Amino acid sequence: MFTLPELPYSYNALEPFIDEETMRVHHDGHHAAYVKNLNDVLAGHDEFLSMDIKYLLKSLDKVPEDIRTKVKNNAGGHFHHSFFWTILKQNGGGIPTGKLLEAINSKFGDFDKFKEKFNQSALSLFGSGWTWLVLDGQELEIANIPNQDSPISLGHTPIFAIDLWEHAYYLKYKNKRADYINALWNTVNWEEVERRFHNSS
Ligand code: MN3
Fold first, then answer.
1. Rounded distance from Cα 30 to ligand 1 centre (Å)
2. 81 Cα to the center of ligand 1, angstroms
3. By three-state DSSP, how is residue 144 classified?
């Protein structure tokens, strides 16, 4: 069975950038539903219920076809939100350091150019989905991926992401997606993002 992880901080920790009500609905409502739906659809398929979530996302072709789409959506939703909570924190923001900063500078020019490119990508995503910073092999890439489709299923290593489903920002920011994106940079847990980068390379 898959379980809902607790938030690694309080529901109001990301105020004023991400409001408490949004965090409650997002974690206790949306994330919890992905976990419940994943367990429900996999009932009786014990080999998948006991899999590591990343391994499940890499093994979707082995899931029976009649439940595959539902498994893909809910496994993605569970993994992506578990990831997302860890890369945010109270009093976050600033810029990364060390090897991640070097890699960003070498790929994008400097941190501001990276951020500009990431923001442009996030603003251009149509419909629901996520903008990701991933490692594709040894190469950092910015990628828009729709719905809860996962970079894991594409063989990429997620390093950082912004949830661009309207449920992630609509209570506070309404249709002002750019304001949400700009605010979110003030909550980034760069130590955790760097840790994920180091562990993957
Ligand atoms: Mn979400």
1. 7
2. 6
3. strand
Report how far residue 77's alpha carbon sits from residue 99's, in angstroms, rounded to the nearest whole number: 29
Ligand 1 centroid–CA 95 distance in Å is 24
Kindly report the pTM of this predicted structure: 0.97
Cα 82 to ligand 1 centroid, rounded to whole Å: 10
Q: Which of 182, 143, 177, 174 is nearest to 161 (CA)?
A: 143
How does pLDDT run across 59-97, given as a tens digit for each residue? 999 999 999 999 999 999 999 999 999 999 999 999 999
Q: Ligand 1: distance of its center to the CA of 171 in Å?
A: 13
Own/partner pairs for 53-62, CB < 8 Å, 24+ apart? 53/2, 53/78, 53/79, 53/82, 54/79, 54/152, 57/150, 57/152, 57/153, 58/152, 58/153, 58/155, 60/153
> Residue 37 Cα, ligand 1 centroid: separation in angstroms?
15
User: Which domains can be identified in the chain, with CATH numbers?
Assistant: 20-86 (1.10.287.990), 98-200 (3.55.40.20)
Element (H, E) at 163: strand 157-163
